[in-house]
Amino acid sequence: MLDPAEAEQIPGGHDPALREEIAHTTARALVHEGRATDDAEVTARILRLVETEGLDTVAALWADAAPVTLPGALWRLFVLREWVRRDARTVGLRYRLGVEHTPVAEVVAGAAGPSPEDMRALADSVLSGVFDGDLAVALERAAAFCRILATGAAVDADSVEPTDPARGSRLTFGAASLVATADDLDAAARCWRADQLD
User: Fold this and answer.
1) N or C: which end of the chain has fewer CB within 10 A?
2) pLDDT tens-place string over residues 156-181
3) What is the pTM of this model?
4) pLDDT tens, 54-77?
5) Ranges 4-13, 74-83, 98-107, 132-141: which has the least confidence
6) Secondary structure of the chain as H, E, C letters
7) CA within 13 Å, CB half, 75
8) What is the overall mean pLDDT for the chain?
9) Would 2 be classed as within a structural domain?
């Protein structure tokens, strides 16, 4: 991975075409290296990428990538995992609220339960599936997880709307964002299966 200081030294580092090239090159390299080894420690190091490199560094690489690209999909997976890692209690609550309305998504996502530990294990399992399983399945599991969380946020929004309309609006907006992310991840899975995800 490029150190942020090294990235700044690349001539024309703010050129959008160069940023896109770096995003795609690093995403391909990370996925290729992760899939080329059976070493569990390599997968564990990749999972800890945000913790070791920082979310800002990962964002600088991939956040501006189009959603249905390899770097765009990886960015969404790493952000989802980071959200779960930082706020597993809230994610578990949203999951618990959403899962009763989305039973098929629950099966696809594959969580053992709604506890914070279960949510962290699910996020790690989905992300590690990119490197040691079928990438399309990992993307579909993440999409199903997002749909459950979106439903949970919408249910929560309905319950708080009468007493706290501003919070209800934020939750509704968050639910819509999660649905959009799920749609992007499903589209990325289809592209991967068609050998068109770059």
Assistant:
1) C
2) 999 999 999 999 999 999 999 999 99
3) 0.87
4) 888 889 889 999 999 999 999 999
5) 4-13
6) CCCHHHHHHCCCCCCHHHHHHHHHHHHHHHHHHHHHCCCHHHHHHHHCHHHHHCHHHHHHHHCCCCCCCHHHHHHHHHHHHHHHHHCHHHHHHHHHHHHCCCHHHHHHHCCCCCCHHHHHHHHHHHHHHHHHCCHHHHHHHHHHHHHHHHHHHHHHHHHHCCCCHHHHHHHHHHHHHHHHHHHHHHHHHHHHHCCCCC
7) 22
8) 89
9) no
Q: What is the token pair recorded at 185?
A: 């991840």
Q: What is the pLDDT of residues 120-158, one digit of tens each?
A: 999 999 998 898 889 999 999 999 999 999 999 999 999
Whether 78 maps to a domain, the answer reads: yes
Is residue 125 situated within a structural domain? yes
Task: Give the range of the structural domain holding residue 156, as residue numbers without chain letter.
Answer: 8-193
- Which residue is it, tokens 């989802």? 80
- Residue 173 is encoded by which pair of tokens? 């907006």
Spatial separation of the C-alpha atoms in residues 149 and 193, rounded to whole Å:
25
Structurally, the chain folds into a number of domains equal to 1
Q: Is residue 3 domain-resident? A: no
